[in-house]
Write a structure and sequence with these properties.
The structure is a single chain. The chain contains 19 helices and five strands. The chain is mostly helical. The strands form two sheets. A three-stranded antiparallel beta sheet has the order 4-3-5, with no helix packed on it.
Length: 452
């Protein structure tokens, strides 16, 4: 509409000008070197306009001829680039389809047509990987590192290659460099965190995890679960270095992160026992026993320094049993203390009250000790030892992701690399795991003499 209006206005202006000239006739006389030309004004105007039009046409023709070589070159380059991008696209499709030969062919074609290595190095590297030529792929990725616009892609390619080949140390270094370039990229944060866990760099993993949670790579619930596991890992790592104060501090943070998380409670109680925080340990165990009793907690509770003599331990275990009268673990813990105090009759009543028809291995072993100690009946004792070897599995630490079984809690599953997935429960299709008090099973935190 605007163009039509503009055209009408211009046409009207020309018509008005023509009418104005016609209504005002006159002559123009030009004299130049003895030549004299006389004509009407309207004719002069018409000739002038005609001259300008011819001049404009000639100028456009000359300008077109001048630009023709450049236009031809640009058209050829454009067609070449279109063909190059088409080859690049077809190469990517071939990579996705797993066609190594076609991917390599299209990569070479795209590289020749485009002449822009940053666009084709990645395709060339992926084609080399499909062909099983890891060295060539690595060479392409390293060349990409030399250009700022492709350095990140090069790092990613080298990182994935290192992970695929199981070179975790090299992968961790590459992930750190990639994180420096793009610190907020979610997959970098999660990859860096996983590699730090595999390499046992728990302190650095904690920093990466905090950044990932802040960046919303992990949601709050998942972040809380992972933070608890890493805190406990830091605690156990500090204990290996004999730094029990630091170990206790990390365990306290883990238990604060997840109040009722059994592994955190067991580890924290162990370190409280180690560094002499007896009252705090007793309160923690008593508060926990009502919801999640555990044999290690019973052991820590029984073996505090003020428990002088077997009878004192029995009294303490009776007090603990009253915190959760309905749970079998309460009766087993008390029965164990009664056996150690050689109060055979009361121990027998407790064990028989649990039901001996499908007794777990731990109860069978306790019955064997009871028959040996009370009646010196080695035949019955042997019967219970045999029953123990064939009894149902005992509760132990089981990975909730893959079902892997461990006698002690660990932050990282060695089978599926899951973090913080070990839960205390009875495993399926596995051999019984000893939880007897004597001999001692492997525990999360060694029960060592209290430091002064």
């Amino acid at each position: 509409m605007i163009r039509v209006t503009f055209f009408i206005l211009v046409a009207a202006a020309f018509i008005f000008a023509a009418v104005w000239v016609v209504e005002r006739p006159g002559f123009v006389i030009l004299t130049w070197k003895g030549w004299q030309v006389s004509t009407e004004v309207s004719v002069l105007i018409f000739i002038t306009i005609l001259f300008l039009v011819i001049f404009g046409l000639l100028y456009r023709i000359w300008l077109g001829l001048k630009r023709t070589p450049a236009v031809i070159i640009q058209a050829r380059q454009r067609r070449r680039r279109d063909r190059g991008y088409k080859a690049l696209t077809q190469g990517m499709v071939a990579v996705a389809a797993g066609d190594a030969t076609e991917a390599r062919h299209q990569a070479q074609k795209a590289n020749g047509l485009l002449g822009e290595p940053p666009l084709t190095k990645l395709l060339s590297a992926q084609a080399a990987q499909l062909n099983g030529d890891e060295e060539s792929a690595k060479s392409y990725f390293n060349e990409m590192l030399k250009r700022p616009e492709t350095s990140f892609l090069g790092l990613r390619g080298l990182l994935m290659q290192a992970q695929r080949n199981g070179k975790n140390t090299e992968a961790l270094e590459l992930a750190g460099r990639a994180h420096t370039l793009k610190p907020k990229t979610p997959w970098i944060l999660s990859t860096l965190f996983d590699l730090q866990l595999k390499e046992g760099e728990w302190g650095q993993a904690l920093k990466t995890l905090d950044q990932a949670i802040k960046n919303k790579t992990f949601d709050q619930a998942q972040g809380k679960k992972l933070r608890t596991a890493v805190f406990l890992a830091c605690s156990l790592e500090a204990a290996k270095k004999k730094n029990f104060t630091e170990a206790f501090s990390y365990a306290r943070k883990a238990q604060t992160e997840r109040k009722n998380y059994l592994p955190a409670i067991v580890v924290l109680a162990g370190f409280m026992n180690k560094i002499g925080k007896t009252k705090a340990m007793e309160k923690l165990i008593e508060d926990t026993w009502g919801s999640t009793p555990h044999p290690l907690l019973a052991r820590y509770y029984a073996n505090v320094p003020k428990s002088k003599g077997a009878l004192a331990i029995v009294q303490r275990m009776e007090h603990l049993r009253n915190k959760n009268l309905d749970h079998p673990e309460s009766h087993i813990a008390l029965a164990q203390s009664l056996i150690e105090a050689q109060i055979w009759g009361a121990a027998r009543v407790l064990l028989e009250g649990l039901g001996l028809k499908e007794a777990p291995a731990r109860v069978c072993r306790m019955m064997a000790k009871l028959e040996e100690g009370q009646n010196r009946d080695m035949e019955k004792a042997h019967y219970w030892w045999v029953r123990a070897s064939d009894a149902a599995p005992e509760p132990t630490w089981v990975c909730e992701d893959c079902g892997a079984v461990r006698p002690t809690w660990t932050p990282l599953c060695s089978r599926c690399d899951a973090v913080g997935t070990f839960d205390w429960r009875t495993p399926e299709h596995t051999k019984p795991v000893s939880l007897a008090f004597n001999p001692e099973p492997e525990v999360i935190v060694p029960v060592l003499p209290r430091t002064k």
